[in-house]
């Protein structure tokens, strides 16, 4: 392993091996680390993509509705759930999903992997738990950003002017709140943040992911 070499020599050797995709062998089973990464990377990317899509589908409508009805029952309930999910680490949420949905209720498999081409239905069943774990964690970020953007837009003068002119609520929401550049940019930022965070949180949900 070259641990007897100077630190700079070890670092240069490490960079050189990394450029050549030579990550050495596993100290557990002596298998090639590059081969293990090549095997698991597509599965990880699949979890990240599906989890991000779930997060956007859940959080953008919920954040928009909460922002439009700030202080209402839905806003209070959604914000409380969001705060709860934010305080729970991803690996804890994944463990709870395994216990309740897989072991206790038996609705979904606790782990494993089946290629999509072999059995699409079982593949999707095994994808639900890890993707849901990642998606709910990311949804907390997107929810907060979307709600804050909608609340900010509601306070602008042109929105109040549109309401004073007698425009219907749907028109005000659609034309002056949801489709303004600032809200669109915030959603783009939320999507970018969600996808970046998914890469980090996917490792914490590996216990619920495919083997």
Can you tell me about this structure?
- There is one protein chain.
- By secondary structure, the chain is an all-alpha fold.
- It has a single domain (40-204), classed as MetI-like fold, CATH 1.10.3720.10.
- The protein contains eight helices and no strands.
- It has helices at 7-19, 33-68, 73-87, 90-104, 120-154, 157-164, 169-178, 181-204.
- Helix 4 crosses helix 5 (120-154) and helix 6 runs antiparallel to helix 7 (169-178).
- The protein starts with 6 loop residues before the first helix and ends in a 7-residue tail after the last helix.
Overall mean pLDDT:
78
* H-E order: HHHHHHHH
Look at the helices and sheets and give the structural class.
Answer: mainly alpha
CATH level 1 class label:
Mainly Alpha
Shape from CA axes? elongated
Helical segment count: 8
Question: How does CATH name the architecture?
Answer: Orthogonal Bundle
**Main sheet summary:** none
Q: Mind telling me the CATH superfamily name?
A: MetI-like
pLDDT under 50 segments (min length 5)? 206-211
Helix content estimate? over 70%
CATH topology annotation: MetI-like fold
Number of strands: 0
The number of domains is: 1
Question: How much of the polypeptide forms β-strand, as a percent range?
Answer: under 5%
What attributes does this structure have?
single chain; 211 residues; mainly alpha; MetI-like fold; 74% helix; disordered C terminus
Structure, briefly:
This protein has 211 residues and is mostly helical.
What are the SSEs and their pairings?
Blueprint: H1 7-19, H2 33-68, H3 73-87, H4 90-104, H5 120-154, H6 157-164, H7 169-178, H8 181-204
Helix pairs in contact: 2-3, 2-5, 2-8, 3-5, 4-5, 5-8, 6-7
